[in-house]
Design goal:
This protein has 96 residues and is mostly helical. It is built from 3 helices and 2 strands. It has a domain of 39 residues: Histone, subunit A (Orthogonal Bundle). A hairpin with a 2-residue loop joins β1 and β2. The chain is flat.
Length: 96
């Protein structure tokens, strides 16, 4: 699939992106390459492939021990906060 500059301008408008002239010149080609790659991936016949229950089937995954590695430091972090109440950060109301 090949995108034009007008297509990129439309996409940028819908996404509310401001783009420079240099970006508008470069994006049609790079986005077209990405869409071509997606088309190639879609062309791969995946209907005959069984889904895997686990990516490491037949192998053992090394796991780290499930233990506490850090101490609770919320008081240290909240000491820098402008306002704290009952152990929670108090922030200005933004929705009325």
């Amino acid at each position: 699939m090949s995108l034009t500059r007008k297509d990129v301008e439309g996409i940028a408008h819908l996404a509310r992106l401001q783009m420079t002239e240099a970006e508008l010149a470069a994006y049609p080609e790079s986005l077209s390459k990405i869409l071509t790659l997606v088309d190639q991936l879609n062309a791969v016949p995946t209907g005959v492939i069984e889904p895997m229950a686990h990516p490491l089937e037949g192998e053992i995954q090394r796991l780290r021990p499930d233990g506490v590695t850090e101490t609770d430091a919320h008081r240290k972090y909240q000491a820098n906060a402008p306002q704290v109440a009952s152990g929670l950060y108090v922030v200005p109301r933004v929705i009325e």
